[in-house]
Amino acid sequence: MKSKRGNPWERAGKGPLIAPSLLACDFARAGEHIDAALAAGADVLHVDIMDGHFVPNLSVGPPVVESFRNYTDAPLDVHIMVTDPAYYIERFADAGADSVTFHIEACAGWDETVGWDERRVRPDGPVRESHLSISPARRVPPSAAKHAQKLVARLHELGLGAGVSLRPGTPAEALRDVIEQVDLVLVMTVEPGYGGQRFMPDMLEKIATVRGMLRENQRLQVDGGINPRTGRRCAQRGADVFVAGENIFGSRNIAAAVRDLRTAAEDGAKRSRRHRPAE
Ligand code: DX5
Ligand code: ZN
Questions:
Q1: For 145-158, what is the mean pLDDT?
Q2: Which pLDDT score, from 0 to 100, does residue 114 have?
Q3: What pLDDT, in 10s, does the model give residues 182-196?
Q4: Around ion ligand 2, which residues have CB less than 5 A away?
Q5: pLDDT for 279
Q6: Is 83 buried (19+), middle (13-18) or exposed (0-12) by CB count in 10 A?
Q7: How far is the CA of 277 from the centre of ligand 1 (A)?
Q8: Counting ligands in written order, which one lies closest to the CA of residue 246?
């Protein structure tokens, strides 16, 4: 189904965007948590999809995204940590996602004779690789970019935003042949799979490298261990979309957490090379 709301990354202005991660909210009180985050000025809602295979954890699927969609008109930024992105993007589009970010490491290949409409359910049969075999240090095969291009094109055809993500062990170079087409690059700042982990400072260099590869109107998202302190450091390197779970929904004051993260992100952006006046 084609998105009625359109690509949220095209609509948004230039400043930093705050994306609370609903993985950290109390699902039984999700509406209340969503309201609090939006009232405090959150820009998009980040939804983490984990398949227990690409990452060693399970979260939620399309019906939960649909419930969020029925509850709010805010943009839903769906991050799919799944082995077979080609088999799921249609379903998350149907469920009401506004943007889908998939992992380049999961783009090794798929059966190209199967049409998009038939891909709503993954066929039976052995799945190719799990998080156990996708070692962080393994090189992403060159075919990945070709498949990633097709996913991006399909997401755009559906009217959705398209993001591509890098695990901590995957170099920026893996995106070379697809980066031009995407709306957003997500640099994971923890190993994907769980909320509440510690930020990996080693990722700062990769953030700066990716920013150097992007056009001004393409977004650079960071996700994992983001709080005002780490968010500011990422903003200084050029990140401009800040996902935060524990720091926002684990806080007693959700509104203050959203505002503090925005202030830190704006402060970091002012100090970044991007916004320094040319010498
Ligand atoms: C991790 C997810 C994150 C997670 C971030 O695999 O992609 O979006 O919710 O959680 P915090 O901000 O708690 O590290
Ligand atoms: Zn995420």
A1: 96
A2: 82
A3: 999 999 999 999 999
A4: 48, 79, 223
A5: 44
A6: buried
A7: 34
A8: 1
Report the SS3 class of residue 76: strand
Which ligand has its closest atom nearest to the C-alpha of 193?
1
CB 178 within 8 A of CB 151: no
Q: Which of 141, 56, 44 is nearest to 101 (CA)?
A: 44
Give pLDDT tens digits for 72-90: 999 999 999 998 899 999 9
- 27, 20, 36: which is closest to 243 by C-alpha? 20
- Per-residue model confidence (pLDDT) at position 121: 75
Q: Catalytic one among 84, 98, 183, 223?
A: 223
Give the pLDDT score at 11.
76
Pocket test for ligand 1, best of 197, 198, 199, 227 (most atoms within 8 A of CB): 197
| Among 79, 9, 20, residue whose Cα is nearest residue 45 | 20
